[in-house]
Structures are given as structure tokens and as C-alpha cells.
Design a protein that fits this description.
The protein has 2 domains: 6-102 and 255-459, 3-Layer(aba) Sandwich (Aminopeptidase); 104-238, Roll (Aminopeptidase i, Domain 2). Helix content is 29%, strand content 24%. It is built from 12 helices and 22 strands. The strands form 5 sheets. It has a 9-stranded mixed β-sheet, sandwiched between helices. It has a 6-stranded antiparallel β-sheet with strand order 8-7-10-5-6-9. The two termini are 27 Å apart.
């Protein structure tokens, strides 16, 4: 089944719209390097587009009407936007759900120590990574420090041109004979990912003078005491902005495409709804997908179900049965990236069922591994309806699998939402070098994802 490269069919206006979308996405990507930052950006944008906090609506005792727009901020790490439709919620919602956490290096709660003239931060990696990717590169520190009496300090170090960066050292090639003989997964161990953060001893300090210098800098420049790190969440991420990639500028190289490219496309899609939709639409951005959708802000938590219950209560007479109907009758795109076919590693793919960069938004009927284990495996009837929606709206789309059978696999939030009985399929943007510090997408696939998610919100039923 041949799928044509999307670039071949673009008009001059399409190309202008595509570049505008890419530029706005790069701003989102560069300023949203953590789930907290993505949530802040999303909430600010939602307010600009007329969304109001659901908590304030509940507090005011006001009933919601078709066309009303509300958002839910989940602990500053996950966020949902709802655009109320004409039909009863009991008939289901049109949901585009993504995740805004990405693989990274997390700073531990008791991180700082000194050794041989260096002050280090002890770390624990987050998500599935090739650990050797993260050494010998510039890293920035992003996160929050919460004081015990309440104040929250936002930390961003390493993104401005004049900022210092931090880094993880690697062993020089001249001494690496033993290291180079190891398996790739053992070349750098988890305990080898400690970050060098300081190297100049504090004058007059005899005991751990470099660590003392670090603590002085933290206190004087950032207002952070060592004990404050117990209640801190600081992430080490690749420093610097995303870049146009390729001499034709057709691609974007940057950190966090998985899954912020789908999150951004979903956000732009719901903002494209200029009229009241037939069905209530939801843009859902979850946390913790990279570690199993766990925790209070992961998709396995109850915040989505609770939000729908509140919406029911604010639009009609509430009952638990109506809530069950609303969830089961919903339609969802689990918007997560897919593995783009890489000719340099062609043996890992089955080409005719692989996603080709530039051929449009992907639909993965199933993910999982080892016989579809952990997969949602969407229904054929649902896929048939989606084909019509995409074709009627001139969306460039393709089917995809996550590598050859028995080679690998992966999962998304799809299976979690499918537990409600709703129709769900994975849909996303093809990515090269997925889970590396710098990933690659094609601008055309981003553009087609926005078109696809907008069409789905408007036309799915």
C-alpha cells in the first residue's frame, strides 16, 4: 500500500502554514523541557484562548453550557482542556491524549558529594535510555525547589547563552580498551551518570571545600539550602534550543519530541475549534508515561475520570451510570510518537509496515511486544471510521508498527483508557533516534498531525 510523501502535495499556503506551525512548536519544545514547564505553557495558552479553571467553575456553582471551555491542572504536571459540545456527555467525548514527560536524568534527594577536586550530583535516570548517550554533552538543570515553609523556587540553569552548563564525564579513548569490550548496555552504568557541578574549592574551607563552594553558590545565587533538595524535583536535560535540521530545513532536531510533538499538535488542534463541536472535545496531556503511567499524575490515576464526573455534574443531573456511559462511549486517539524507518538500521524494521518520515501522521493498530503483549490493538470498525475522517479532511496518513516482530516493542497510554471500554487507537508522529537526547521529526508529519487531530475532534462520532 503506497503512501506518497506529504510534501509533494503542498500549496504555497500550505508551506507557509507548515512553517508557522513548526516555529510555534519549536518555541513550545524549547520552553517546555519538563512536564511542569509544559503544563505551565499549556495553562497560560488555554487562558489566552478563553479557557477557565474547572475548580473556579465548581466553586462558583455555575452550570456549564455547550461552547464553554475549561481546563484542569493536575498538580502542575498534567493538564486537560475540555471544549463542551452540543451533545450530552453521556454520548461520549472525542479525546486526544498525549504525554509530556520525556526520558532524562533526575537529581536525587541527597545528591551532593565531593571526590578528587570535583563536586558531583548523584542521579537516577528516568525512562528508557541508552545511558552512553548522556555522557560528554552539555546538560541544563530544570525543576522546582520547595521550601519547607511553602515557597516554590523555579530552577532553570544552562539555557541562556551566558549560563553555565553541567556535564557527565566519559572515559578517554586512550584508556577505554576494557570499556569498549563491554556490551552497549554496560558501557555506562546507572551509577556512572553522576553530574559534575563544581570544580573550584571555597577559600578557607578545609573539609570538602569544592562541595562547600557549590553550596555557597546554590544559596547565594539561587536561594537553595542543601536540605531544600529533599523537597525538590530537578531534572538534567540537554542544554540549548531545538534546530532546523537538513539543508532544506525539512526536519527538527531537538530534545523531547517523544511525546511533546503530539502534545503540541493536540493543543493546536483543540484551539482550532472555533465553533461549538458536536461532541465535547478533550486535549489530555499526561505525566509518567515513560515509567508506566504510574503515580498521581500518570494516566492510571483517576483525574480524567474525576474531571468527566465533575463536567457531568455541571451540565446535567449526575449519576454514576451516566459517567460509565460517557467513558465507554468516548473515542480516543492515544497520541504518541512512532518509530520512524531508518535506512541505516533497516534490519530492525519491516519496511512496508513502518512509518516513513514525511508521509504524514501515523496510526498504530497495535503496539506492545512479544505477541502484542501490553497492546491496546484497536478495533477494525473504529479504524474504518478514522480512515474516512482523514480522507474527507485531506490528511496525509500512514499505518505503522514499532519495529519487526520479536525485535522490540513499546507501549502508550492507550491501554489505560481502553479499560473504560472506549474506542482507542495510537496515532502520532514518526521519530528518528527516539529516546536519545536529541530526536528528529519531519515538519510535514507535525503539520499533518495537527490537521488529523483537528479533524478527529470535529468529525468523530
Amino acid at each position: 500500500m503506497y503512501r506518497e510523501n506529504a510534501w509533494k502535495n503542498y500549496s504555497e499556503q500550505d508551506l507557509l502554514n507548515l512553517e508557522k506551525t513548526a516555529k510555534n512548536y519549536r518555541h513550545f519544545l524549547d520552553n517546555g523541557k519538563t512536564e511542569r514547564e509544559c503544563t505551565t505553557i499549556t495553562v497560560d495558552a488555554a487562558i489566552t484562548h478563553g479557557y477557565v479553571d474547572l475548580k473556579e467553575v465548581i466553586k462558583g456553582g455555575k452550570k456549564l453550557q455547550p461552547g464553554d471551555k475549561v481546563y484542569v491542572n493536575c498538580m502542575g504536571k498534567a493538564v486537560m482542556l475540555f471544549h463542551l459540545g452540543r451533545n450530552s456527555l453521556e454520548k461520549g467525548l472525542n479525546i486526544v491524549g498525549s504525554h509530556i514527560d520525556s526520558p532524562r536524568i533526575d537529581i536525587k534527594q541527597n545528591p551532593f558529594y565531593e571526590d578528587s577536586g570535583f563536586a558531583y550530583a548523584d542521579t537516577h535516570y528516568y525512562g528508557g535510555i541508552k545511558k552512553y548517550h548522556w555522557v560528554a554533552r552539555a546538560l541544563a538543570l530544570h525543576g522546582v525547589v520547595v521550601k519547607k515553609d511553602g515557597p516554590v523556587l523555579n530552577i532553570v540553569i544552562g539555557e541562556k547563552e551566558e549560563d553555565p552548563v553541567v556535564s557527565i564525564s566519559d572515559l578517554l579513548i586512550h584508556l577505554s580498551r576494557e570499556q569498549m569490550g563491554k556490551k552497549a548496555g554496560e558501557v555506562i552504568g546507572g551509577d556512572d551518570l553522576d553530574i559534575i557541578v563544581c570544580g573550584n574549592p571555597l577559600a578557607g574551607e578545609e573539609k570538602e571545600p569544592v562541595k562547600a563552594a557549590l553550596l555557597k553558590i546554590m544559596k547565594d545565587e539561587y536561594g537553595v539550602e542543601e536540605e531544600d533538595l529533599v523537597s525538590a524535583e530537578i531534572e538534567a536535560v540537554p542544554a540549548g534550543p531545538s534546530r532546523d535540521m537538513g539543508l532544506d530545513r525539512s526536519m527538527i532536531l531537538g530534545y523531547g519530541h517523544d511525546d511533546r510533538v503530539c502534545a503540541y499538535a493536540s493543543l493546536e488542534a483543540i484551539f482550532n475549534l472555533t465553533e461549538t463541536p458536536d461532541y465535547t472535545c478533550c486535549c489530555l496531556m499526561a505525566d509518567k508515561e515513560e515509567i508506566g503511567s504510574v503515580g498521581a499524575t500518570g494516566m492510571r490515576a483517576m483525574y480524567f475520570e474525576n474531571a468527566v464526573a465533575e463536567l457531568l455534574n455541571l451540565t446535567e443531573e449526575y449519576s454514576d451510570l451516566k459517567l460509565r456511559h460517557a467513558l465507554a462511549n468516548s473515542r480516543m486517539l492515544s497520541c504518541d510518537v512512532s518509530a520512524g524507518f531508518d535506512p541505516l538500521f533497516a534490519g530492525a524494521f519491516e519496511k512496508k509496515n513502518a512509518a516513513i518520515l514525511g508521509n504524514g501522521v501515523c496510526f498504530n493498530k497495535f503496539t506492545g511486544s512479544g505477541g502484542k503483549s501490553g497492546s491496546n490493538d484497536a478495533n477494525a470498525e473504529y479504524i474504518g471510521k478514522l480512515r474516512k475522517i482523514m480522507d474527507d479532511n485531506n490528511v496525509a496518513w500512514q499505518t505503522a508498527e514499532l519495529g519487526r516482530v520479536d525485535v522490540g516493542g513499546g507501549g502508550t497510554i492507550a491501554y489505560v483508557c481502553a479499560l473504560y471500554g472506549m474506542e482507542v487507537i495510537d496515532s502520532g508522529v514518526a521519530v528518528l533516534s527516539m529516546h536519545a537526547p536529541l530526536e528528529v521529526i519531519n515538519k510535514a508529519d507535525l503539520y499533518e498531525a495537527v490537521k488529523a487531530y483537528t479533524a478527529f475532534m470535529k468529525d468523530a462520532e
